[in-house]
Amino acid sequence: MRIARYISLLVLSALYIPAYGASFDNKAPDEQMISALEQRAAQAQPREQCFLYAQLVHEMIEFSAQQYAAGEADKASGWLKKAQEFTHKLHGALAVNDKKLKDAQILLRHTAFRLTELLHSGNSEDQELVQETLAQLNQAQNEAMLQVFKK
Fold first, then answer.
1. Which of 79, 115, 123, 149 is a Cys-bridge partner for 64, taking CB atoms 3.0 to 4.6 Å apart?
2. Given this model, what pLDDT does residue 96 score?
3. What pLDDT does residue 134 have?
4. What pLDDT was estimated at residue 11?
């Protein structure tokens, strides 16, 4: 019975992700927006940091994808490395009972999807960095999902 409930929850969340995730890509991120979000996340209450870090990582991945598309692989890989740093901070913020934990989990799932797209269309020289970032992001997303199920 319990497994059936989890499976139905996963199916419903899988159907919900495309509609919810599409709203995150409405604006093209830029360096100023990322900087402002970084400051906001650093100054936020611990209960709000998980979602803000997830949002920050998402924006960094989107900006990195733009840099790759523009042919600026060095800048793009720099943003991926920075996203990895904030993914580590996100892991620490998951331990706190975040009020937007489900939203953060959905955003992380969407971000992982975008990073997978980048992996399949990216430069061969940065494949290892993209794969490493994706692995860290997937781990954070899985931990967030486990935290959601614990509630």
1. 79
2. 64
3. 92
4. 47
